[in-house]
Amino acid sequence: MAEILLQTEGLKVSVEDKEILHGVDLQVKRGETHVLMGPNGAGKSTLGYALMGNPRYKVTDGSIFFEGKEITGESADKRAKAGMFLSFQNPLEVPGITLSSFIKSAMEQRQGSRIRLWDFKKELNKAMELLQMEESYGARDLNAGFSGGEKKKAEILQLLMLNPSLAILDETDSGLDVDAVRTVSRGVLEYQKEKKGGLIIITHNTRILESLPVDYTHILVDGKIVRTGDASLVEEINEKGFEEFLKA
Amino acid sequence: MEEKTYVDDIDRSVYDIKNEEKDGYRMKEGLTPEIVQQLSKEKKDPQWMQLFRLESLQIYNRMEVPDWGPSIEGLDMDHIATYVRPDTKMSTKWSEVPEEIKETFERLGIPQAERESLAGVGAQYDSELVYHNLKEEVAAQGVVYTDMESALTGEYADMVKKHFMKLVKPGDHKFAALHGAVWSGGSFVYVPPGVTVEIPLQSYFRLNAPGAGQFEHTLIIVDEGADLHFIEGCSAPKYNVANLHAGCVELYVKKNARLRYSTIENWSKNMYNLNTKRAVVEEGGKIEWVSGSFGSHVSYLYPMSILKGKGARAEFTGITFAGAGQNLDTGAKMVHSAPETTSYINTRSISKDGGVSTFRSSVVVGKEAKKSKAAVSCQSLMLDSHSRSDTIPAMDIRTKDADIGHEAKIGKISDEAVFYLMSRGLSEEEARAMIVRGFADNVSRELPLEYAVEMNNLIQLEMVGSIG
Ligand SMILES: Nc1ncnc2c1ncn2[C@@H]1O[C@H](COP(=O)(O)OP(=O)(O)O)[C@@H](O)[C@H]1O
Ligand SMILES: [Mg+2]
User: Fold this and answer.
1) In a domain, A126, yes or no
2) H-helix segments, B12-98
3) Could you tell me the distance, in angstroms and rounded to a whole number, from the CA of residue A20 to the centre of ligand 2?
């Protein structure tokens, strides 16, 4: 039996004293790909933030385990170091820090030692090529002035470079054109093949899933997982939408 | 411990004897002509300089302390002589040097001998060799690069006399007058016409004899079509028991010449830094200021550029970092007094732990400065809610066709950005430091690599321990 990477038990999360998640149970094993779907405002991003440890999203009840250890109260950097990664729905702009130097220091922080510039560049260029990013992007300030698509590619670039054991992708495909979705999807597939880690893909879109094997699909409505199924559930939602769940 | 013994020995031999000698006038209040004369004699000034000092002293005694900026009440003006005499209480023991400063030396990797010199407990740090080699190298191009004292009597004595405190006059303000009376140390640079100095010249005044670095004078003349980058100061905190710094910098940029003047100042946190810096730029010339202000208890610092010739340009890129107990009042002044002149001010100020940082920009465009352009961009970052950052822009525009732009932004560190960086494995401290370093990028980008690294280390140091 595959090892359990992530497990939440009765997770309740509040933002600014308003409860958004009302008890979420989720289990992700190594090598599995989970898709999380749900209408806008259902709490998908909230779940991503809570899993990653955003202090604004307070866990009021329940717990989070990562690789068997409880991490409910851990800070985000500890979770990252343990092997978690969140691709942000809206990546933040940090002027004055170049994308490449940021990735390098993040890698160094995680592994606790310096990385030779030469080795780093080689690896970075390879990943950038896969994502069809021009080399010059590395020298641009982190997300500053990036287009929506560029920001998302930069997130996947970080995913490939940091190589976490669990990755949560929050609407990484939203707002991208067809080609960009395909490129991003290629990056995710590469991660899936290479790392064989766990994946939670939050999306509204089936295109990113076309070439990705999916193990489970969860439907989140009003802060609760209302249904869990296999890959075919994605198709069903794609055809019928969330109406059925909203009425319930 | 052997090291300790070594320090104590040096300590005695250099300071104690002198102290005994001068105890006679130690308790005199205020600054007297006798003290200034004595200083002048010790320094073997030419006659004109001695007179200059005495005249400056008269002006000093007449003028009032500025009352429009941060308070300088902690400066004991009645016992100003104690700030002036290099031997004053300088026989500090290494054990008495504030822990904070020792730590900074440690973290910046400053060699022990230099630490002791910077902390005022050791002998002059031996930088002579480096200095000498640099001098030789540029001398081959006809460049004069020497300390101010030797410049007064050397080959270029007339040139020095013609320019010394002509740009910053003793009558400009009380501390300029004080400087005129008691200045000591500093650098003189002359670059002949058409010469491009490839390597940045660096001043070593910080490593000079005890007390130096308090009233140092920098005079740089870049002749027609010449090009120079001069770097002053360093990121190591200079510790003085006497807590006043009133230096003066005068920069002359001749026709079509270019001068880049970079400083990172990091005074110890008890220091009153009342520094005056000014440049005059002739036709087609360019001055570029790159300035990092760290440390000190109170700072007044507003480098001024006078654009005197047609098409002259000035750029000021600066950063000010005010932490606990610091009130740093900085800025830049641009005076356009010829047609088609251009100026650009680009600054960042950071405040944390209750620090106050005020940025004053002043742009004056005279009637004769037709078709001139000026742009000001100031950004402030407050790292917590009890710190303050203000920008005070002033503009005096007297032509109709001037092209003027102004932009000011005040911001806080975004918690979401901190979380974003942390989600990639950076600690909270490191994430915040990274955001601040990025904010300071306008300056670090302009500095030579080793200085940029030093400045980033300094920011890192200032940020450490800022999380409660
Ligand atoms: N930072 C926040 N401040 C206030 N309300 C928030 C914040 N983040 C999310 N919410 C609220 O939580 C609910 C769920 O939002 P979110 O998790 O972003 O949904 P989804 O990602 O499924 O669209 C919404 O009602 C939203 O307004
Ligand atoms: Mg969302």
Assistant:
1) no
2) 17-22, 33-42, 47-62, 81-84
3) 12
- What span, in angstroms and rounded, lies between the C-alpha atoms of B248 and A50? 56
How far, in Å, CA of B153 to CA of B161, rounded? 10
Cβ–Cβ gap B422/A75 under 8 Å = yes
ipTM for the predicted complex comes to 0.97
Q: What is the pLDDT of residues B114-123, one digit of tens each?
A: 666 666 555 4
Residue A82 to residue A66: CA distance in whole angstroms:
8
Note whether A139 and A67 are within 8 A (CB). Answer: no
The position carrying tokens 């002035």 is A145
Q: Is B220 helix (H, G, I), strand (E, B) or coil?
A: strand
Would residue A131 count as lying in a domain? no
Question: Any idea which ligand is nearest the CA of A37?
Answer: 1
Annotated domain spans of chain B: 23-458
Q: Which domain holds residue A239?
A: 4-94+164-247
Instruction: Quote the pLDDT of residue B119.
Output: 62
List residues bridging with A21 in a β-sheet.
A13
Does residue A216 lie within any of the structural domains?
yes
Mutation target for B interface from A89, A94, A143, A146: give the one with most B CBs within 10 A. Answer: A94
Greatest C-alpha distance within chain A: 57
Residue A117 lies in a domain: no
Ligand 1 pocket, Cβ-based, cut-off 6 angstroms? A 15-16, 20, 38, 40-46, 56
**Residue B256 neighbours by CB under 8 Å, 6+ apart:** B224, B225, B283, B284, B285
Interface test with A, best of B377, B414, B420 (most A CBs within 10 A): B420
First to last CA, chain B: 37
Q: Are strands B258-267 and B227-232 parallel, antiparallel or unpaired?
A: parallel
- Our count of domains for chain A comes to 1
How confident is the prediction along chain A (248 residues), in pLDDT tens digits per residue? 569 999 999 999 999 999 999 999 999 999 999 999 999 999 999 999 999 999 999 999 999 999 999 999 999 999 999 999 999 999 999 999 999 999 999 999 888 899 999 999 999 999 999 999 999 999 999 999 999 999 999 999 999 999 999 999 999 998 889 899 999 999 999 999 998 899 999 998 888 888 889 999 999 999 999 999 999 998 888 888 888 887 65
CATH number at residue A202: 3.40.50.300
Q: Which residues of B touch A107 (CB under 8 A)?
A: 425
- Within an 8 Å CB–CB cutoff, is residue A77 touching chain B? yes
Between CA B396 and CA A117 the distance in angstroms is: 50
Cβ atoms of B369 and B360 closer than 8 Å: no
Please check whether residue B361 is in contact with residue B315, taking contact to mean a CB–CB distance below 8 angstroms.
Answer: no
What are the pLDDT digits (tens) for B63-102?
Answer: 988 888 888 887 777 777 666 655 444 445 777 777 777 7
Portion 409-428 of B in contact with A at CB < 8 A: 414-417, 419-428
* Ligand 1 atom having least distance to the Cα of A43: 17
